[in-house]
Amino acid sequence: MACRDLQTALRVILLACLGAVALGGCERALAPADSRGLQPLAIAKDAQRFRIVPGESRLVLLVYREGRMARLGHNHVISTNQLQGEVYVAARAQDSAAELRFAVADLQVDEPDLRTEFGDDFPGSLDDSAIAGTRSNMLSPKQLDAEVWPDIVLRTASISGAWPALTMDIQIALQGRVHRVQIPATVNVTGDGKLMATADFPLLQTELGLEPFSVMLGALRVRDQIDARLRISAIAD
Fold this sequence. Notes:
8-stranded antiparallel barrel
């Protein structure tokens, strides 16, 4: 995919990326992300707190190219395993709540093992210098502006369903804006104080009011749909 195309795609998917179930921890102190406009997190009195296990949890975004000239580009894998936050588990799922945070600077581009893991749509490793350049531009003031807006926050507005199959209404705070998405998630709590959650779901850029980037009159463009994969491991405090 053309460098400018990918840079723009990354900025777009990061607006979409956090339509994910939020659970968390805090091994590193993050600067407060922009939470203005976020609905407060309601925590039930009987809720048990769990925190994320960094390194054992991961968010992956699968980005695809399309168009008549799609063969000139590449599909891409954007990821982070440095998730932080908390989840509060009550007897009723509806009384539970969660928040997730991560640093924009922790996002990685096209790690070889992840390209291999996600199969034939992501063949081979990409050039290290090209990846580094793309990531640098992604974090620059013209893109995600990581120095000014270093963190992204997810916070539940409401939860419906019954354990373990839930639907979460998620607020996303990014660069001073708040977006809302609904995602399905599976959350299991074991008797030894561990929580595991998974969420696989599509996200449409246009549903966030974004126009998928394209070049050559649309002959090479970023597909509107992005596929998100979230795996969370958390432990009880």
